[in-house]
Specification:
Length: 240
């Protein structure tokens, strides 16, 4: 059963920077579904994309796997696919491991507690960064994407989902307001919305779609397309 996210419900004298600790791991499925518009649609369709791009004998990588939603989805569409699922939060990985074991899905899914900026990607046909790159320091993003590109086989795919920034202050405000409307419609109070926003400041650094596209092309991806967008939440398909 999903545990309800109430982390920012009470007024805090000081809002600490957001971290993927045990308290967040406990409520994560509820938090992400009530905070990211289209999250379940995205996860479900990442499985569909994975099934189409998977190359026999290669691997899938779920980078910043949290509780393994993407790995589960890849498996639903392609039951035997080998997956390397990586996260640097022990609390998230412990729950991921528990979920996989309970579902009898741990075989062929290698869980690694590691920093994805230090990872070697090898023989990959599907790599997923589902709302993870936004937590990586700006200066490290290009090197990470270059490593992914180098580790992908020709014809392989990177799926990159991100919260984005808009090019003008006016558009940014419009989409931020719509996103907050979505959170309110899902039961978050104005206090919860504003305290979470403060916690994420300087932790989640969004960039524009153009910045993502340019960087992906700079590291070598020939084809880069937006395949999903709901307000300031976007997913890109980058094919090698
Ligand atoms: C928003 S969550 C990702 C959600 C998940 N991909 C899903 O679809 O449910 C971001 C995850 O990235 C992980 N993360 C952030 N920085 C990381 C890093 N440098 N190395 C590995 N994992 C990282 C966090 O611990 C967190 O679990």
């Amino acid at each position: 059963m999903k545990v309800k996210d109430q982390i920012y419900q009470q007024p805090l004298t000081e809002v600490a920077g957001f971290s993927f600790d045990a308290a967040v791991a406990q409520v994560f499925p509820d938090m992400i579904q009530r905070s990211v518009p289209g999250y379940l649609t995205l996860v479900e369709n990442i499985g569909v994309i994975g099934a189409q791009f998977y190359q026999t004998g290669s691997r899938c990588y779920d980078l910043g796997c949290s509780l393994g939603a993407v790995s589960f989805s890849l498996r639903r569409q392609n039951p035997q696919v080998p997956i390397v699922a990586v996260d640097n939060s022990e609390a998230m990985l412990a729950r991921c491991d528990e979920h996989l074991r309970r579902a009898g899905e741990s075989e062929n899914i290698e869980l690694r507690c590691a920093d994805i900026t230090q990872l070697k990607i090898e023989n990959a046909s599907v790599v997923v960064l589902n709302f993870t790159l936004q937590f990586i320091e700006l200066a490290q993003r290009e090197a990470l994407l270059a490593e992914i590109y180098a580790g992908l086989n020709r014809g392989g795919v990177l799926i990159l989902s991100e919260k984005i920034a808009l090019e003008s202050a006016e558009k940014e405000q419009r989409f931020v307001d719509l996103h907050h409307g979505f959170k309110r419609a899902n039961g978050y109070s104005d206090l919860e919305i504003s305290q979470k926003r403060s916690a994420l400041e300087n932790v989640l650094i969004p960039e524009t779609v153009q910045q993502h596209q340019q960087r992906l092309q700079a590291v070598g991806f020939e084809s880069v397309e937006v395949w999903f967008q709901c307000w300031n939440f976007v997913s890109l398909l980058a094919v090698k």
